[in-house]
Design brief:
Layout (H helix, E strand, L loop, with lengths): L13 H5 L1 H15 L3 H6 L29 H30 L9 H13 L19 H31 L5 H12 L2
Helix pairs in contact: 2-4, 2-6, 4-6
């Protein structure tokens, strides 16, 4: 992942997806750069020097969010289109690709032979549940495609939560009226992704 910026899609290969640590790290880093620091990102869009310094602003401590300055609409739109939506789309692309990998046959599964051997041994076992009620239990190792499918499903739920939270803050500060899904779909349509 070195040399890849946050908004760039990493090289999408089955190896990338099956390396669950690398996949999680990419998603975590992308989220922390954009979504987890959304307040700082939005504050950075404000240019206080435009209005000049108001000495009365220091007379009263600003403790509520209503005191926050409105961000210029062009700055908001540029941030949403060039940073936020492209980051979300990159993560969607990665999750969609890895979901496809998870539902495809995996001829290179390194644990396939191990699972087949475990299954064969299980079929040969003689089980007397009267002597040992737990002897009938058999928990084969999960195929890596199944593990990847679970990871992708969980990460998609995390994306839903994070995007809703981020969009709430963006809407509050930028005045966006639509849902994040509608806004992202509109952006996708404009950019033909």
């Amino acid at each position: 992942m070195s040399g890849t910026s946050i908004s760039e899609t990493p090289a999408l290969t089955p190896q990338f997806c099956f390396n669950e640590k690398l996949l999680r790290d990419f998603l975590r880093l992308s989220r922390s750069t954009i979504d987890d620091s959304i307040t700082q990102n939005l504050n950075a869009l404000i240019t206080p020097a435009q209005e000049g310094f108001d000495p009365s602003s220091t007379a009263v401590r600003q403790t509520d969010s209503r005191g926050q300055k409105v961000i210029h609409p062009e700055a908001c739109q540029g941030f949403k289109e060039n940073v936020l939506f492209s980051s979300w789309q990159t993560r969607s692309d990665v999750l969609n690709y890895c979901a496809g990998v998870a539902t495809s046959p995996d001829p290179d599964d390194p644990d396939l032979i191990l699972r087949e051997n475990e299954s064969a041994r299980d079929r040969e076992r003689v089980v007397d549940e009267r002597l040992d009620p737990y002897s009938g239990r058999f928990f084969p190792k999960e195929p890596r495609t199944e593990s990847l499918a679970n990871l992708v499903r969980n990460q998609r739920m995390v994306e839903e939560i994070i995007r809703a939270r981020t969009w709430g803050l963006v809407s509050e500060r930028c005045g966006a009226g639509s849902s994040w899904e509608d806004a992202l779909n509109s952006w996708r349509h404009k950019h033909q992704r």
